Amino acid sequence: MVTVRNIVVLTGAGISAESGLATFRGPGGLWEGHRVEDICTPEALDRDEALVLGFYDARRRGLAHVAPNAAHRALAKLEAEWPGKLLIVTQNVDDLHERAGSRRLIHMHGELLSALCRVCGEHTAFAGDMIGGTVCPSCSARDRLRPDIVFFGEMPYEMEPIEQALIACDLFVSIGTSGAVYPAAGFVQIANATNAWTLELNLDRSAGSHHFDDARYGAASQLVPEWVDSVLAMA
Ligand code: NAD
Ligand code: ZN
Questions:
Q1: Residue 15: other Cβ atoms inside 10 A
Q2: How many CB atoms lie within 10 A of CB 138?
Q3: pLDDT digits over 104-148, tens only?
Q4: What is the pLDDT at residue 17?
Q5: Which of 57, 138, 200, 204 could make an SS bond with 212 (beta carbons 3.0 to 4.6 A apart)?
Q6: Distant-in-sequence, close-in-space partners of 210: CB < 8 Å, separation ≥ 6
Q7: Would you tell me how many other CB atoms lie within 10 Å of the CB of residue 131?
Q8: 105 close to ligand 1 (CB < 6 Angstrom)
Q9: Phi then psi for 145, rounded to 5 degrees?
């Protein structure tokens, strides 16, 4: 294995599962009882705004009832103690990484605690409900805020810094993601192309398992602290 300085960690819904947040394709292929295409597309928002806003209002309210688990905490410890660089790229829209203490973090699919104005395009911190009325703090437009979530068909955030970090990393670790949603599912191949070592930590084999140099299967709350301790031991 090469000497490791720069680490990029990609996380998905699996890292938050043991905190009590449902993964994307839970039982029956549904997310919290809904088909993804009825909730997570710009067309769904146009067709049934109340359904989509209400769905994300419920997810946002749900954040009050969950807490980071040992896997989130281990990644925050790694950031605090690792002498090289660490970037966490999360597909999650929850705030459990930041609540655990992670700071160098990109939410590539947006955040529940942010609103996007459909008039002026501003992103603003948002903690309440959208159903019942909103006013954009930037342009004062009424009822034009939407969840600041990257829907299917929309461009994920901050792809350039993410790609640069992937090209520069020596170690890429994918945690709790099914490898089914692109472009995140392709990150392992970008890292491989520049000779980084690649590791998958997941409950079971993901769609892209064969692209990784190494893999460990089990619960994130167990695997991630073990892996962090092994990385810090070689620092
Ligand atoms: P996914 O639901 O498609 O896959 C989750 C993966 O995690 C699966 O491979 C599963 O085997 C694994 N997993 C489940 N429990 C685990 C555990 N305890 N430990 C380790 N692994 C576990 O999730 P994804 O790949 O992140 O899907 C992408 C989309 O889901 C993202 O766009 C994201 O925005 C959205 N999403 C986010 C949240 C959240 O913010 N918490 C929740 C649901 C969906
Ligand atoms: Zn606005």
A1: 33
A2: 14
A3: 999 999 999 999 999 999 999 999 999 999 999 999 999 999 999
A4: 96
A5: 200
A6: none
A7: 15
A8: no
A9: -75, 145
Please tell me the distance between residue 138's alpha carbon and the centre of ligand 2 in angstroms: 5
- Give the integer Cα–Cα distance in Å for 64 and 46: 28
d(CA 227, CA 218) in angstroms, rounded, equals 12
- d(CA 14, CA 20) in angstroms, rounded, equals 10
- In the residue annotation, 34 being an active-site residue is answered as no
Both tokens assigned to 152? 């299917």
Confidence (pLDDT) at 37: 84
pTM of the model: 0.96
CA atoms of 37 and 153, how far apart (whole Å): 11
What are the tokens at 223?
């695997």
* The two three-digit tokens of residue 182, written as one number: 């692109």
